[in-house]
Structure formats: structure tokens, C-alpha cells
Write a structure and sequence with these properties.
- The protein has 248 residues and is mostly helical.
- 80% of the residues lie in helices and 0% in strands.
- The chain has one domain.
- The longest helix has 38 residues.
């Protein structure tokens, strides 16, 4: 089966594709190839978008001002006191100064000629994106594999890595996140779709039902989130107690 067929099969949750990746001797290599292709696609498109924006300081400044004014407008809708409105008015009056600062930043001289510097920056972003997807996938797969084994799963880590790599396929949508209005919804769709692919793959590799596969995928991330919240609460209580003690 070709890489494109595997990619398409992952997107439509084709059980035959998942089973073949689980049993294939070169499943890990094929999975990593999908990650590489998706990463380069996303990185190249986003780098090209950033390169175009960086090459046009006026466009960069204009985009910043639009975002700046939108943020002020959002804050104005929730402002309830005269003091808050006064602060927002000051921010609004500072828009031109902020634009000037942004323009100075984007036009600062670089060690290398600017076109070469921008090209190398874009190249670095393109190369780093597959590595980012790979590291995120490996972390998710390892945590999921541990949980799945504890829930009675029988699959091996090699098969889990091979099939887990398919969860990166939906992130090809990230190539469209350079469009401001699509950034958040596309990111949510890609993340959710990838999660469903990982759950399906976990069920196939470890021969679990959908409920246990879902639990395996979400168990340790949920525990880490809860632990983080508890630690934050403890830290906050400690800071409040310390402040109260110093005030006394």
C-alpha cells in the first residue's frame, strides 16, 4: 500500500489500513514517512506565508494594528469601571506609537543580508515542524501504550508507534492556519481528528473496545492536567499565605 493510500485510509479510519500498519514489518518507517510529509507540507506553507509577511513590513504592521484594535474592542465590551475605560482609551491612543515600534522591529538590520536571513528562518521552520509532530506523537503513544497495557491490551510498542504515527495525518490541515479567521477552528478540528485516529489505532493495536481505547488515550493526559491544577492551587495558596504573613 502506498503512503498516499495509507494517509487517506487513516483519515477515513479504515480498519484495514490500521491493521496493515500494525502487522507490517516496515510500519514504523512508513509512519515516520507520513509524519515527515505532513510536517514538510505544513512547515513549507507556513514558512512561505511568514516569508511573504516579513518581506512586506507594511503588511506586518497592518496585521498587528488590526489585532491590537480587536483586542482593545474585546476588552472594552467587558470594561465595567471608569478606570478600566480610561486605561483602554490610553491603549487606543497609543496605537500609532505601537505601530512605529513594530515597524522598527521588523526592519532591524541583520547579520546576514535580509533575504538570506529570511530564507534560513523559513528553512528552519520547515525542518523543525516534522520534528515537532514526531515528538508530540511519541509522547502521546508512549503514555497511551502504558495505559492500554494496564487495561489489558496485548499490542507491542513497535506496532503502537507505527499506527500512532497515523494520528499526525489530520494535521495536514495545519497548513491552513496561516489564515487568521481559520486558525482556531482548523487547529481544533485537526487536534480532534487526530485524537479519533489515535483512539481507533489503539483499539486495533491492543485489540480493545472503543471505550477502553478512549480511556487509554485520555488517562494519563487527564491525570497530568489534574496534577497540574492541584500543584497550581497549592502554589497559589502558598503565595497567599506568604503574602498574608508578610503583611502581618
Amino acid at each position: 500500500m502506498s503512503v498516499i493510500d495509507t494517509f487517506n485510509g487513516a483519515l477515513i479510519l479504515n480498519q484495514r489500513v490500521f491493521g496493515e500498519m500494525r502487522d507490517a514489518p516496515d510500519g514504523v518507517r512508513r509512519g515516520f514517512l507520513i509524519i515527515l510529509l505532513v510536517g514538510i507540507l505544513v512547515g513549507a506553507i507556513q514558512s512561505a506565508s511568514a516569508l511573504i509577511s516579513s518581506g512586506n513590513p507594511d503588511q506586518t504592521v497592518e496585521a498587528f494594528i488590526v489585532s491590537y484594535r480587536e483586542a482593545i474592542e474585546q476588552q472594552r465590551q467587558t470594561a465595567t469601571t471608569p478606570e478600566q475605560r480610561e486605561v483602554l482609551q490610553l491603549f487606543e491612543e497609543s496605537a500609532d506609537e505601537m505601530a512605529a515600534m513594530v515597524r522598527e522591529l521588523v526592519t532591524l538590520p541583520t547579520i546576514l543580508p535580509r533575504p538570506i536571513s529570511l530564507f534560513l528562518q523559513a528553512l528552519g521552520q520547515t525542518v523543525s515542524r516534522p520534528l515537532e509532530y514526531l515528538s508530540d506523537m511519541l509522547l502521546a503513544v508512549i503514555l497511551t501504550h502504558i495505559a492500554a497495557r494496564q487495561l489489558g491490551g496485548q499490542g507491542g510498542i513497535r506496532a503502537m508507534v507505527a499506527v500512532g504515527s497515523l494520528s499526525v495525518a489530520p494535521h495536514a490541515l495545519d497548513a491552513l492556519t496561516f489564515i487568521p479567521v481559520l486558525n482556531l477552528p482548523i487547529s481544533i478540528i485537526a487536534w480532534g481528528w487526530g485524537l479519533i485516529v489515535l483512539i481507533t489505532g489503539t483499539a486495533v493495536v491492543h485489540r480493545l473496545d472503543t471505550g477502553k481505547a478512549t480511556l487509554a488515550v485520555l488517562l494519563y493526559p487527564s491525570l497530568l492536567i489534574i496534577l497540574g491544577i492541584l500543584l497550581s492551587c497549592i502554589l497559589l495558596i502558598g503565595l497567599i499565605s506568604l503574602s498574608a504573613g508578610l503583611g502581618a
